[in-house]
Amino acid sequence: MHNKILLLPLLILLDACNKPPAAPEPIRPVKTVQVGTEPGTAYLRLPGEVRARHETPLAFRVGGKVIECRINLGDTIRRGQILAKLEPADYQLATQSGAANLAEARSTLTLAETELVRYRNLREKGFVSAALLDQKQASADAARARADAMQSAHAEQTRQLGYTSLSAENDGVISAYDCNVGQVVGIGQPVLRLAQAAEKEIEIHLPEAELLHPGSATRFVISLNAMPGKSYRGELRELAAASDPATRTYAARIAVKNADSAMQLGMSATVEVQPANGREIHLPLSAIVSRDSHPSVWKVDGKDSVHAVAVSIAEVEGNAVRIASGLSSGDIVVAAGANLLREGEKVKLLP
């Protein structure tokens, strides 16, 4: 009886040793996709107009009546060219009056200096007092100061006479015109606008819904409606901080990098906002998994093991996503069954 009791644990132990080992975990088959880049598509297309980088309002520096306008809207002008004139009669009279006052002051100065020299000689001989000599010295100094003041006033009046002619300070094109013979204009009232054609830009207006695209993009392609098939490179230079109260759009300026003479001011254009490198990566939506509230994908290494890789999503397009960063061309990514995998798990790639 005791022998049977002793043999029972031994039999149980032998039976446990004879059990077959546990079956290995099956390798999970997955559907994969190889990452490749596709030609980038424009995020946004907006109409625009060719404008000059620098546009300067032109105005007379004095007021008066316009008697001559020598140019027209759209004319090409050169630096120093006379564009318009004011009636100069009033300024000519002021200049003549200033010249007469200057001549009088110089005559008074000459007389005062002559008397000063005579009284110095008399003082040396003891014929006049020192107080009288000091008086003549003060009179000469006052005459000299008055002559200097008249000289400055006459110079200012001469300059104002010159301001009755409006001349161009730079080469360019007249882009706005409000110059009419007989019109009375005030000081600084714009009558023309000069566009310097050396640097060209495209002016566009962004809807509120599309405000983020240009700010994050680095590639702009510009085409002119007058020249289909030809394109230019652009760069965002300026984006308004506030919208236009009437249109509720945001004005923006796209600087043209390779502008040529064929691009004329006022032409209509189309601006396309494109990916930075002109290529982009697309994946099926099923390839994206969420790890710690951040999007990622399962990338298959050379040993058929999967590893989580964080990605940045640029945009969701139906059942596909456009990847902004995190993957490179040639990477193999799990496209279906991604939610059932774990880090380092072996997988079997389906054909």
Could you characterize the architecture of this molecule?
The longest helix has 37 residues, at 89-125. The chain has a 6-stranded antiparallel beta barrel. It has a 4-stranded antiparallel beta sheet with strand order 2-15-20-19, with no helix packed on it. The chain has 4 helices and 22 strands. The chain folds into 4 domains: 28-38 and 280-349, conserved putative lor/sdh protein from methanococcus maripaludis s2 fold (Beta Barrel); 44-51 and 195-274, Efflux pump adaptor protein, beta barrel domain (Elongation Factor Tu (Ef-tu), domain 3, Beta Barrel); 55-84 and 165-191, RNA polymerase II/Efflux pump adaptor protein, barrel-sandwich hybrid domain (OB fold (Dihydrolipoamide Acetyltransferase, E2P), Beta Barrel); 89-162, Helix Hairpins. The chain has 351 residues and is an alpha+beta fold.
How are the elements arranged and paired?
Elements: H1 2-17, E1 28-34, E2 37-39, E3 44-59, E4 64-69, E5 76-77, E6 82-86, H2 89-125, H3 130-162, E7 165-167, E8 172-177, E9 184-185, E10 190-206, H4 212-216, E11 219-224, E12 227-239, E13 250-256, E14 268-274, E15 279-284, E16 289-291, E17 294-300, E18 306-310, E19 312-317, E20 320-325, E21 332-336, E22 347-349
Parallel strand pairs: 1-22
Antiparallel strand pairs: 1-21, 2-15, 3-10, 3-14, 4-6, 4-9, 5-8, 6-7, 8-10, 10-13, 11-12, 11-14, 12-13, 15-20, 16-17, 17-18, 19-20
Helix pairs in contact: 2-3
